[in-house]
Amino acid sequence: MNQIWIEKYRPKKLDDIAGQRHIIERLKAYVDTKNVPHLIFAGPAGTGKTTSALAVSKELFGDTWRQNFNELNASDERGIGIIRGKIKNFARTAPIGHNPFKIIFLDEADSLTSDAQAALRRTIERYTHICRFVLSVNYSSKLIEPIQSRCTVFRFRPLQPEDIKNYIRKIAQKEKLEITPDGLETLIYVARGDLRKAINVLQVGASISKKITAELLYETSATAKPEDVKKLINTALKGEFMQSRNILYELLITYGLSGEDVIKQIHRAIFDIPIPDESKIRLIDKTGEIEFRLTEGSNEHIQLETLLAQFALEGKHMK
After folding, report:
1. Integer Cα distance of 237 and 71 in angstroms
2. 2, 50, 76, 153: which is deepest, by most CB within 10 A?
3. Nearest CA to 212 among 201, 224, 223?
4. Is residue 16 within 8 Å of residue 41, measured between CB atoms?
């Protein structure tokens, strides 16, 4: 494990990026014409936003891409200082070589303060003739309207299971790994459309064994088996509160889960349990309330036991 696989296997060209074909075709058209507007890449983590920005820069600038591409993370410095300092200094200098412009890639731009975004709007406006901005965000709505109106928005979707499987198979082949069918399905379950997470989980598993199985991945990814989570919920719904409590603590100890990890998996499992929709609505409502309490700093054991108690009461109501 001398190298982080998400960097080792990061695509170098737009054509190699997994999924997102609707976006890649449009970006290739910009590269072919060498006419790139300001861009907003919006979408969940691990879907190819940073990789797309790097690939565009490499195809546009060739050997001089490092001199004409500047990557900054807005979550490190959220205030107006980063706009007036690093960004403005890079934007105002001429591009290297015969390139008509440079690219500034601002990751997590939606974490910038309102004042910083207002300063960024002015910087974008002033240096458009020699600089293009690519803003990566989870939620484009968190950017002020003047910035949104100056940029073309690309919305990245969670990757489809088949796209993740194909990419994982390529890595496994190069690393000489054997992935069992249930191991591959487990990666899909754990990743939930996030290819970066799938690759990271695969690398952790590969550091332990060359044979990647479902059991190995569950143990190394802090994820409980879906059937164990369903067993927890069904036991609580039967009114067997103490037994469900024991299953809960077994999950916490065996898989090393946090309270928020358990809540997320319970939320996913509720939809797969054959109970009336009205009961699902009440359970989802209560799950959301408990999740909020956990994020606010409440004791996770007490809150999870409270949730199990609510499940037991709902089970009694269904009889």
Report:
1. 50
2. 50
3. 201
4. no
How many Cα atoms are found within 13 Å in the side-chain-facing hemisphere of 307?
30
The radius of gyration computed from the CA coordinates of the chain, to the nearest angstrom, equals 23
Q: What is the pLDDT of residues 127-156, one digit of tens each?
A: 888 889 999 998 888 889 998 988 889 999
Nearest by Cα to 308 from 275, 263, 272, 277: 263
**What residues form DSSP beta bridges with 212?**
179
Class of domain 226-318: mainly alpha
Distance from C-alpha of 153 to C-alpha of 174, rounded to nearest angstrom:
35
**Residue 153 zone, left/alpha/beta (φ > 0; ψ -120 to 50; rest):** beta
CATH of domain 161-220: 1.10.8.60
* CATH 3.40.50.300 describes domain 5-155: yes
Q: For 109, how many CA atoms within 13 A lie in the half-sphere containing its CB? A: 31
**Assigned token pair, 222:** 């802090």
pLDDT of residue 82: 66
Q: Which two tokens stand for residue 123?
A: 């910087």
Tokens linked to 40: 């907003």
Residue type (1 letter), 200: N
| Lookup: tokens for 126 | 């002033």
Question: Among residues 283, 217, 221, which one has the least CA distance to residue 256?
Answer: 221
**Placement of tokens 């107006």 in the chain:** 80
Q: Is the dihedral of CA 101, 107, 110, 111 positive or negative?
A: negative
Residue 253, CA distances (Å) to 243, 247, 257, 301 in order = 16, 10, 7, 12
